[in-house]
């Protein structure tokens, strides 16, 4: 039994060494950087669309809307293809982190923290994968609005037994992620993802960006919760509906402009992150 334990430990150590070698490889680093640049572009486009909504220009200020804006440009299919590749690159990155764990020495003896980070990476991988698939669908001529998709999902959930409870659960998960984003920004935990460039300006960009994303997600979660309480799937919505909801409030244009600047700050932060990602 002791020999089996030693063999298992050696196998685990070998896997960890191989994963670290892969993380330090140029190809892996290039994959991550390309994905982060595309992620930055998506958020900068969302910021632009949110500003249009704030000042009467209309438009779909969501991740889907950002992709559709790219689709309408002269090089739309090419740009969408690049974004799709970038999102799939991020999917591979976060999928790898979820599968093998984020093996930093300081965390080797903190299994709870490692598990939470692996779950977080798995969630990010799913988001990136969904955006990559959406970009490909737009290249091929498919895809509806993000809010229609959210309403359809909510309607399907409400149609099953305990459906309203499931929608409330979805709302709770979104709100939990929103709080996590705000906490990550305020506590500046995002600096753990950087191998350099932790200047004051970078920390300010990251803080503003993560807080803005958290606030927007909180509104999305609230919309899901309201849809469950009112038993009306149409009241659910994605990021676009959330931003329109903010814009419809008193001083909504100012509030929405602040959120747009927050998304822009996150986009710029992603460009800095792409220069020095900690892989």
UniProtKB/TrEMBL annotation:
Task: Report the coiled-coil segments.
Answer: none
Q: Could you tell me which residue ranges the DUF1206 domain spans?
A: 34-100, 121-187, 208-275
Has the keyword Membrane been applied to this entry?
Answer: yes
The record, for Pfam families, names: DUF1206
Asked whether the UniProt record includes Transmembrane among its keywords, one would answer yes
Sequence intervals crossing the membrane = 30-55, 75-100, 121-142, 162-183, 204-231, 251-274
Tell me which UniProt keywords the record has, alphabetically: Membrane, Transmembrane, Transmembrane helix
InterPro entries xref list:
DUF1206
The protein here is known as DUF1206 domain-containing protein
User: What is the organism lineage in this UniProt record?
Assistant: Bacteria, Bacillati, Actinomycetota, Actinomycetes, Propionibacteriales
């Amino acid at each position: 039994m002791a020999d089996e334990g030693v063999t298992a430990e050696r196998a685990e150590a070998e896997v960890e060494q191989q994963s670290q070698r892969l993380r330090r490889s140029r190809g892996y680093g290039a994959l991550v950087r390309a994905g982060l640049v595309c992620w930055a572009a998506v958020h900068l486009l969302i910021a632009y669309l949110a500003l249009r909504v704030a000042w009467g220009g209309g438009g779909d200020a969501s991740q889907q809307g950002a992709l559709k804006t790219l689709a309408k440009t002269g090089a739309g299919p090419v740009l969408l293809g690049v974004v799709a590749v970038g999102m799939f690159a991020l999917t591979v990155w976060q999928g790898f982190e979820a599968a093998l764990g984020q093996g930093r020495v300081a965390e080797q003896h903190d299994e709870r923290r490692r598990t939470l980070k692996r779950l977080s990476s798995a969630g990010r991988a799913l988001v990136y994968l969904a955006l990559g698939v959406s970009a490909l669908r737009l290249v091929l001529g498919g895809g509806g609005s993000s809010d229609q998709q959210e309403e359809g999902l909510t309607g399907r959930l409400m149609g099953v037994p305990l459906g309203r409870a499931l929608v409330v659960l979805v709302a709770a998960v979104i709100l939990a992620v929103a709080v996590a984003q705000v906490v990550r920004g305020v506590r500046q935990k995002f600096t753990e993802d950087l191998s350099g460039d932790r200047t004051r300006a970078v920390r300010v960009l990251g803080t503003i960006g993560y807080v803005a994303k958290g606030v927007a997600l909180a509104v999305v979660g609230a919309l899901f919760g309201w849809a469950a309480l009112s038993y009306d799937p149409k009241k659910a919505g994605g990021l676009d509906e959330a931003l329109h909801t903010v814009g419809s409030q008193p001083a909504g244009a100012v509030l929405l402009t602040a959120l747009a600047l927050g998304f822009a700050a996150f986009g710029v932060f992603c460009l800095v992150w792409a220069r020095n990602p900690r892989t």
